[in-house]
Amino acid sequence: MKQTSAIPARNQKKVIQESGGICAFCGENDVATLEFHHINGRNIEHPHDTENLIYVCKNCHGKITAGTISTADVFLQKRIIKFQGNPSSKQQSCPNTVSLNNSVNNGTIANVVNFHTSKKSQPKISCPTGSIGADLNKRNYLKHIIDRYHEFAKADKGATLKYAVFYGSIKKKFGAKWDMIPTDRFSDVTDYVQKRIDATVLGKNRKSKGLKNYSFFSDYILNH
Fold first, then answer.
1. Which of 133, 136, 137, 208 gets the highest tally of CB atoms within 10 A of its CB?
2. What is the pTM of this model?
3. Taking the CB of residue 193, how many other CB atoms lie within 10 A of it?
4. How far apart are CA 45 and CA 27, in angstroms?
5. Ranges assigned E (strand) in the chain
6. Is residue 34 a contact partner of residue 56, using CB atoms and an 8 Å limit?
7. How does 80-112 read in b/e, with b if 16+ C-beta sit within 10 Å?
8. Which whole-number Å values give the CA distances from 35 to 18, 61, 63, 66, 82, in the listed order?
């Protein structure tokens, strides 16, 4: 399939602006290390379309090629950056000017201020034997796919996403907090979460392309 020899300058500029001029994954801002990754490869009809490009550093580009950063994560990060901006860019923009009583301090200041209150900490409740939370592998996997759902849902809903809502839906359906659900219902609850991931806009889009939205429990255990 014929493809242009170089990425058009206008497309390069748009993708760089989209990423805030830094790596889409780690926030590296050294121009000498930054380059473009073709998400769906170069052997497509319009390989240099901005939808097929993401701005990354050489180190993260190598991780994508090696599979350390999965194709699913690349698709997700591209969607997040496109609609919400680069999260790494927001983390770097921390001003060092503080206004106190109508005066401005331009000197060196701390970026972190800790406030200590007398509020009593809540006692930690241990998960009982026979619950998902008491089985480390099952607990970690369920938390993993719940987080995966939130990643996909955030790509759809952006800042309006309320994380507590999904935890509440699990509790309502299974009658207990996610990690307090009995282990004999593990397959039921994981199936529920997986179906919710597949039902997101990003999940449907990826599934139509034959891409995996999540790893199954057996695969997860082998890799962790």
1. 133
2. 0.48
3. 21
4. 30
5. 34-38, 53-57, 98-100, 103-105
6. yes
7. bbbeeebebbeeeeeeeeeeeeeeeeeeeeeee
8. 14, 8, 13, 16, 17
